[in-house]
Design goal:
Layout (H helix, E strand, L loop, with lengths): L1 H12 L2 H4 L14 H4 L23 E5 L7 E3 L7 H4 L7 E6 L11 H11 L2 E7 L9 H24 L7 E6 L1 H10 L6 E7 L19 E8 L14 E5 L14 H7 L1 H8 L7 E4 L15 E2 L5 E2 L3 E2 L10 E5 L22
Parallel strand pairs: 3-4, 3-5, 5-6, 6-7, 7-8, 8-13
Antiparallel strand pairs: 1-2, 1-4, 9-12, 9-13, 10-11
Length: about 350
């Protein structure tokens, strides 16, 4: 465990010069930089776990964005008798619950890009889970330990929201890195089944094997996984009903000049999902090997796959993936996703390198 802590600090300390020439999203690579976070190992917060923690918990906040403007937000109050109706929640819209990973928070990168994309698109009620106090740098070991207590409390919050009228069948849990595992673990404490999980490069370091410790296909009716740094910061094997491997799933070509190609690749999964929200911009994927290949998209033979999908035909990755799709799919894309090419193109400059 000590090796992981040292690794995090060493990785982050070399990024200061690199940041000056990069867009804001690159700041998410500063995991543990003392000049950025002003924290030490003594500041790490460890929950007790095993049901011993209280909920609601001030360290675990769920925030609803109530309009197309980022500043318009309202924190969920579990004890309010009619919170949904008293908020500006729109029952006609789909719902997304966004859960950040290590070193994240409500207004931090990279998940702020995805939050802003959903808010700007305007067709979703956007709930953001902020558990940043429990996963601040350089406390990765504590963050991994805390994902189960966070998931336990979130399950209670979700059950309360459902009792207030939030339809589970129209709600998607979206998590990046450790947040992806929180989506999966939360499912173990619900009294109903999640409809859909979208997991963005689920974290690999220190995550124990076994379905009770990490995301797995049984955690929702449909589990989609997008791999961008498989085998490094992200998990390498299949974890969902459908797994997408972007550019082989391991390292992204546009991250080649970054100080840490693995960390850069891990983060850009968020931009791929943000891009997929917009009509006509969704990345297209084709069937490939069971695990992410080490090179480009592999050819496959024609035929019929599970659920009647024609093998060899492309399907959209991300927001518009068909809910009955199954298997392993690959995406080939040499350009940074969701990077606007003109003033009229949807995108976010923080996704540009």
């Amino acid at each position: 465990m000590m090796k992981i802590i040292i690794l995090t600090v060493v990785i982050s300390s070399g990024f200061l010069i690199y940041a000056q020439a990069q867009h804001l999203l690159a700041q998410a690579l500063y995991l543990g930089d003392p000049d950025t976070y002003n924290t030490t190992k003594e500041d790490c917060v460890w929950k007790r776990g095993h049901g011993a923690d209280r909920c609601p918990d001030p360290d675990i906040r769920t925030i609803l964005y109530t309009s197309g403007v980022v500043k318009d937000k309202l924190e969920f109050n579990m004890n309010h008798p009619d919170w949904l109706n008293d908020s500006e929640w729109d029952p006609a819209k789909e719902n997304v619950i966004l859960i950040h990973g290590y070193a994240g928070g409500d207004d931090t990168l990279p998940m702020a890009v995805l939050r802003d994309a959903y808010i700007s698109h305007g067709k979703h009620n956007v709930f953001v889970v902020d558990w940043g106090v429990l996963g601040q740098p350089p406390c990765y070991v504590a963050a991994v330990y805390n994902i189960r207590p966070v998931a336990t409390c979130l399950a209670q919050m979700f059950i309360r929201l459902r009792d207030l009228g939030l339809p589970a069948e129209r709600t998607t849990c979206i998590g990046h890195s450790l947040g992806a595992h929180i989506c999966g673990l939360m499912a173990n404490y619900l009294n109903f089944r999640l409809e859909k999980i979208i997991a963005l490069d689920p974290a690999r370091p220190l995550i124990k094997p076994g379905n009770m410790n990490r995301l797995d296909p049984g955690d929702a009716k449909f589990v989609q996984v997008i791999h961008t740094n498989a085998g490094h910061y992200g998990e390498g094997g299949r974890m969902g009903h459908i797994d997408f491997c972007v550019n082989g799933g391991r390292r992204q070509p546009y991250c080649g000049n970054s100080t840490n190609i693995n960390l850069c690749s891990h983060i850009w999964a968020v931009c791929y999902l943000a891009q997929s929200i917009y009509e006509g911009m969704e990345p297209m994927a084709e069937p490939c090997h069971r695990r992410c290949p080490s090179n480009a998209v592999m050819p496959v033979r024609a035929g019929r796959g599970r659920f009647g999908y024609a093998v060899g035909y492309a399907i959209p990755m991300g927001q518009k993936t068909p809910p009955n799709a199954y298997g392993s799919y690959c995406v080939k894309d040499d350009d940074p996703p969701f990077c606007p090419t003109s003033s009229n193109t949807p995108g976010d400059k923080r996704c540009c390198i």
